[in-house]
Amino acid sequence: MAKTAFEQNFRHNLKLVGKRLNVYIKDPDNEKNIRGVRTALRRLDATFSLLPKKMRKKNRLKMEKYREFFKANSKMRDYDMISSRLTALHASNVGDALKRKRKAELARALRLAKSLKRAAPMKVYGIQDDKLGSRIDRLTGKLAGIIKELLPVVLSDSSKVKELHRLRKDCKKLRYILEAASADSKREYAKAIRGKDLEEVQDLLGAVHDSDVTIEYLNSIKNSQLAKKEAANRKQLYLAFVRYMKK
What's the pTM? Predict the structure, then answer.
């Protein structure tokens, strides 16, 4: 039986994750390899949400393992980013504990990656493209609704850390889903994000999030002086996001 366009795309995403897992396992400490496998997993996760309910249920455990691996790599990425910020703040001497945490997380991520390679592949077949449009429209509509609710909240209050993080994740997911979306869904997205470039919004929100993570770490080690310096940097990053959204 011939595979539909979406099924071919989903299988391509699965294959890409597999390839990048192989590269990652060979050199898990390489920042390029970490970024590559994370990007492939984001795209897979977004398209997974478009599968029929029964198919998602059948493959739920495998997807959860992918997500667990993704979270481990997210922590590693955060540790690397915090180290970079500490260097920028001329405070690399406070990062010893961070290095130990990163080393432990790297070992955990590598174990998860190897277990994923041994696990049975996802069972995906018989996806009907004629039913895909409604699922895409429902999901993009839901994400667009959340974004429209979050925007006025985060644009009026810089302290809404959780809401800013949620907005960033939803924009990211929407970006990947829109690759398979109809023109109507794309118009809905444009209304939700005020006609702004989705990738640019992601980058601006990502910079704010990185600063929030750094401040959280500095507060955890009770370094209020550096936390105040990073808070000043965070203020400028937040204002850049607000200016972009309001221009």
Answer: 0.87
